[in-house]
Amino acid sequence: MTTRGAGETSLPPTAGCVVIGGGVIGVSCAFRLAEAGVRVLLLERGELGGGSTAKAAGGIRSSFTSRVNVELGLRGLAAYSAFSRDFGTEIDFRRDGYLYLITDPADVPAFERCAELQREYGVRSHLLHPGEAKKVLPLVETDGVVAALWSPDDAKATPDAVVQGYARAARAHGATLRTGVEVTGIERDGDRLTGVVTTAGFVRTGAVVCAAGAWSGRIGELAGLDLPVRPFRRQVVFTGPVPGLPDSVPLTIEMPSALYFHREGPGLAMSFSEDDGVPGFGTRYEPGEWLPRLAELAGRRIPAVLDAGVRTAWAGLYEMTPDRNQIIGESVLLSRFFYATGFSGHGFQLGPATGELIRDLYLRRRPAVDIAELDVRRFATGAATAELNIV
Fold first, then answer.
1. How sure is the predictor about 51, in pLDDT bands with cuts at 50, 70 and 90?
2. Which of 230, 225, 189, 186 is nearest to 43 (CA)?
3. CB neighbours of 335 closer than 8 A, spacing ≥ 6?
4. Is the pLDDT of residue 3 over 70?
5. Has residue 7 got a pLDDT over 70?
């Protein structure tokens, strides 16, 4: 099969499965499906990895509070640790760990349960006293910190490199990846998929994977389905050089403020969650009241950063669900409509496992991880359980 250029917009008339979305979730699904022999067409309205993946922090962890997320996170860590070997792509994988700084005594029991759960899976996660946390990261001030959760095997990698590695592998297995093509309609005959309408024409298919990130709610509407995924803006600043910055800096998160920072070159990338008030697709960076609040949080926790200044900044989108957990599964209302979205800030780290899950669902095989609790129907039945360790 001849692979056209990445920007070529001509489409094949038919496909075994159409994947909508070219971020890490979409390309992971496309690769695993193509590897299994499925005729895959991936459609991305922008550039591969140009949406939320392009602005992801690149964290990879197993330090979650639910069994399903711990299991999926461990699969992500294993896949990324071997990515350069398996895909011939260097992704700058580093195990610098995750460090959670706990400032509310009421949160300590939940983090204790979190550590116990992770240790059941062999994860070296444990609680530290504030003084021990400062030994892990001498740069941090621990005033007001009552405990810390330390997960030394958690890691970080470069999201764009991962996307390109998956994309090359998907093409090598015969997948067609088209950028600059927007899906504008999904056709169905009763509860059966018949095709997708795009800005480059119609493609007949009996299967669709919605991996459209923050835009997944719109894709669901095109299919006549409710995917409760809403976009919320997140802002990040990148500092100049930070005096005394060690080579290894864990991805550090203060809870419950959700201030987080990690090393980015000679400086730090820093952010904290804005109020999830009104959803929207705006990605304009607006420091306003947000930047002074960030400076206040960061100055208290890592005072050396105040001399570094802001080098650059941007805003991107989180794809949020009501319980801050992803939805992965197959619709019971529209046959062969699969969804893998709503990752609420942890899509990059769960990307490898998600590709495997969607492949298994498509092939009607039992997935390696029980994902029943990630079914979208949980919101209608009241069975949703929130993930606590989110940023």
1. confident
2. 186
3. 191, 192, 193
4. no
5. no
Q: What pLDDT does residue 19 have?
A: 98
pLDDT tens digits along 269-306: 999 987 666 789 988 999 989 999 999 999 999 999 98
Residue 113 structure tokens: 């349960």
The first and second tokens of residue 27, run together, are 């390309």
Predicted confidence (pLDDT) per residue in 142-175, tens digit: 999 999 999 999 999 999 999 999 999 999 999 9
Q: What is the pLDDT of residue 55?
A: 78
Measured in residues, the chain has a length of 391
Q: Give the per-residue pLDDT at 273.
A: 82
The answer to whether 300 touches 35, Cβ cutoff 8 Å, is: no
Secondary structure of the chain as H, E, C letters:
CCCCCCCCCCCCCEECEEEECCCHHHHHHHHHHHHCCCCEEEEECCCCCCCHHHHCCCEECCCCCCHHHHHHHHHHHHHHHCHHHHHCCCCCCECCCEEEEECCHHHHHHHHHHHHHHHHCCCCCEEECHHHHHHHCCCCCCCCCCEEEEECCCEECCHHHHHHHHHHHHHHCCCEEEECCCEEEEEEECCEEEEEEECCEEEEECCEEECCHHHHHHHHHHCCCCCCCEEEEEEEEEECCCCCCCCCCCEEEEECCCEEEEEECCEEEEECCCCCCCCCCCCCCCCCCHHHHHHHHHHHHCHHHHHCCEEEEEEEEEEECCCCCCEEEECCCCECEEEEECCCCCHHHHHHHHHHHHHHHHCCCCCCCCCHHHCCCHHHHCCCCCCCCCC
Alpha-carbon distances, residue 349 vs 62, 79, 147 (angstroms): 9, 10, 25
Question: How many C-beta atoms lie closer than 10 Å to residue 283's C-beta?
Answer: 17
**Phi then psi for 93, rounded to 5 degrees?**
-70, 125
